[in-house]
Amino acid sequence: MAVPGSPVRRPGLDGAAVRRFGLLVLGDVRIEVRAELPGVRFTELTGDRLAYAPARVLVAGTAVNLARRATGYFRRTAVLGKIGDDDFSPVIRRELRRLGVADLLCAEPGAANAVSVMLRDRPGADGPGRRLLVAGEHAPSRRLSAADVRRAADGIRRADVLFLDGYGLLSPVSREALLTAAGIARGAGTAVAFDVVPHDVDARLTAAALRPVLELADVVISEAPTLARMLGLGGARECALPPALDALVPGRPLWLLRCGPTSLERVLAHRRGDAPLEYATGFGPGVERAGFGDRLAAAELYWWLSAHAAS
């Protein structure tokens, strides 16, 4: 490919030697409870169960999760989103300050902040364990408006890359906000990166519903099986995806396709007209899954921007 090397080798997954560029992340911001259940398999549960296990509460959501990892690569990192107006709001803003992330959040008066619960069960012979994520459905992020985005337009224009994700497409209000942000970025010369999530988005949206944001994106990140299902390719091999992706949208976005047994072990990087690039991510037994995808995405964005800056 025109993009050289591998982001896993350089800059690597532990941050860059020299922080550069500006990243603005638009997405979900919430309070999350996380627990791993080392003695429990979800499939074994036949009744109520009390489990004592490590549990923690943290400020999370797609935007914060990526921003937390991105600060090791980017000189400037900002989060744009909508939060509630309750006792958690100062906690959220304080965490962004602690991380060194610019706060472009807007608060919805009288609204509660969203809360989610993430449980992961015991690994088994069939894989690293399963994740159960229960997300509060009335999250303020679903009501992020185009007007909210336009008020933050200067921040979008100052960024080198705007990062969006598919959760914003699941509400008509936030969908308009997402497309507005992408349009502002394109008009200002800010690159647009889009993460195709949730991983079952093919059961929630059609390829036609995704196409408007894909057509505005410079970089698209997705699990390969998600796009294969959405394009009606079922269990096709990864090598069958690039021609279908080229047919889906015009232009030459860089597709970073997550592949492997858990869709995290390898990446197939494809861009129309370039030779494909494949690299191992380093994910495997003994590597913590939580946050790994965000580490990888941050490294890839820095790698891609560095290549463009050098060209």
From TrEMBL:
Domain Carbohydrate kinase PfkB: 59-233
TM stretches of this protein: none
InterPro entries: PfkB_dom, Ribokinase-like
Gene3D superfamilies xref list: 3.40.1190.20
Protein name in UniProt: Carbohydrate kinase PfkB domain-containing protein
Organism: Actinomadura macrotermitis
Taxonomic classification: Bacteria, Bacillati, Actinomycetota, Actinomycetes, Streptosporangiales
